[in-house]
Design brief:
Length: about 250
């Protein structure tokens, strides 16, 4: 059945190669877990071996990761904080490069998640729209689960980021431990991704070399840098990836 699906979707999903590849990766992961994860104290597994013996090639990327230098990210930070008068968005940008968090993880951060005594950052959630599946309801942002269980992690705060992050918190974040680090200017509560992106996209186009740089590109840059100095296993744990194979796909900056 798996081989038939691979053969059939080569034609039926020819126009959606990324969807086909992602479906294959999920299928392979499910069977690999069934063959390796113990289901009882004796170490028995649900099946003896995975029936997924063929692979599907990863489709070519439509977007090439934009490499980002320290000088560029600080130029972007200064532009956003100064001319746009958005120190929150400016701080999010440097967190993106130096911590490599997903945008939802950054936007879900609270004051309590920044451990200044040990210079660590706790990631335990991702900001989501609780009403996303019901178009009749207005948007309601709340802290939801991370993309994978390994997304819950506590990482060192990069030395390059510490002073800027702590100065921002002292100046703009309420004393309540549960206060969002980044607050919606008018509505209060957590800052939404679209509000961040509106400013970020305008500003990045004014920094030479950052044309088309997605926020997720900053995560790719972080993983690439960390892999180069500490190895892919460390970078994988830092990024909260489910597997080293996923991390390898990020090392392209």
């Amino acid at each position: 059945q798996i081989n038939e699906w691979i053969d059939a979707t080569a034609e039926t999903m020819r126009d959606t190669p990324n969807a086909r590849y992602n479906a294959y990766v999920l299928l392979n992961s499910i069977f690999a877990g069934a063959a390796t994860d113990p289901i009882d104290a004796e170490g028995n597994t649900l099946i003896d071996r995975s029936p997924v013996v063929r692979s599907i090639a990863r489709p070519p990327k439509k977007h090439e990761t934009v490499p980002v230098t320290d000088a560029q990210i600080w130029a972007l930070h200064d532009l956003i904080a100064g001319e746009f008068n958005r120190p929150d968005v400016a701080t999010i940008a440097v967190i993106g490069l130096y911590q490599g968090l997903r945008i939802g993880e950054v936007l879900s951060l609270r004051r309590r998640d920044v451990l200044r005594d040990t210079d660590q950052l706790c990631v335990s959630a991702s900001l989501k729209d609780a009403n996303e599946l019901d178009p009749e309801l207005s948007r309601r942002l709340e802290r939801g689960s991370t993309k994978t269980p390994r997304g819950v992690r506590t990482n060192p705060i990069a030395p390059e980021l510490r002073d800027t992050l702590y100065t921002y918190i002292d100046a703009y974040v309420a004393e309540d431990p549960d206060a969002p680090l980044f607050t919606a200017p008018r509505a209060g509560g957590f800052l939404g991704e679209s509000s961040f992106a509106d400013v970020y996209k305008q500003a990045r186009e004014r920094i030479p070399g950052l044309h088309g740089c997605r926020f997720h590109d900053l995560r790719h840059n972080h993983v690439t840098r960390l892999s180069n100095v500490a190895g892919v296993a460390v970078a994988s744990r830092d990024a909260g990836h489910a597997s080293v194979r996923t991390t390898a796909g990020y090392m392209d900056a």
